[in-house]
Amino acid sequence: SSNLKEQLPAWEHVSAPPKTYHKIKNLCLKQIHNVKLVKDLKNISRRLTNQAIHKQQDSCLCKDYIDDHIEGCKNPHRCAMTGDKILCDLLPKYNPYSSPTKDNLTLTHQRLEKNANTRKQ
Predict the structure, then answer these.
(1) Closest CA to 77 of 61, 52, 57
(2) Which of 45, 21, 22 is closest to 33 using CA atoms?
(3) What pTM does this model have?
(4) CA distance 78 to 59
(5) What is the pLDDT of residue 31?
(6) Cβ atoms of residues 68 and 79 within 8 Å
(7) How many structural domains comprise the chain?
(8) Which residues, at least 6 apart from 58, have a Cβ–Cβ distance to it below 8 Å?
(9) Please, are residues 34 and 109 in contact by the beta-carbon 8 Å criterion?
(10) Are residues 38 and 5 in contact, defined by beta-carbon separation less than 8 angstroms?
């Protein structure tokens, strides 16, 4: 589920392809933004989609970016882009933005009824 995907660790993720992580780019995400989980990366990258407030530049005046500057981040837009790239590089099975693929393993109506009756016994 999406909730479980968000609880996975952001760093050294099981489905991250080689060269997903870059020490210099990730340093700010780890130290200033305190990113630990996929959920944290998702929250930071979500800022990029808020076009009403966010401007794609270092001098953006949206609240999140001002707060990031106060905390010590020198380029909040780059951090948001880095977080988004990490998420997009994850395999679809673990990517919080992707829907699960249909595996054709769902139970038929009759099988669901049979299981429900068995549990009642």
Answers:
(1) 57
(2) 45
(3) 0.74
(4) 12
(5) 92
(6) yes
(7) 1
(8) 75, 76, 77
(9) no
(10) yes
Domain that holds residue 82: 2-120
Residue 54: per-residue pLDDT: 67
| 5-62 tens-digit pLDDT | 888 888 888 777 777 777 788 889 999 999 999 999 999 988 888 766 766 766 677 7
CA distances (Å), 68 to each of 5, 28, 60, 89, 95, in order? 25, 10, 11, 24, 25
3-state SS track over 11-78: CCCCCCCCCCCCHHHHHHHHHCCCCCEHHHHHHHHHHHHCCCCCCCCCCCCCHHHHHHHHHCCCCHHH
CB 101 within 8 A of CB 86: no
Query: Tens of pLDDT along 54-107?
Result: 667 666 777 888 888 899 998 888 899 999 998 988 888 888 888 766 767 777
Tokens (6 digits) for 11: 């760093």
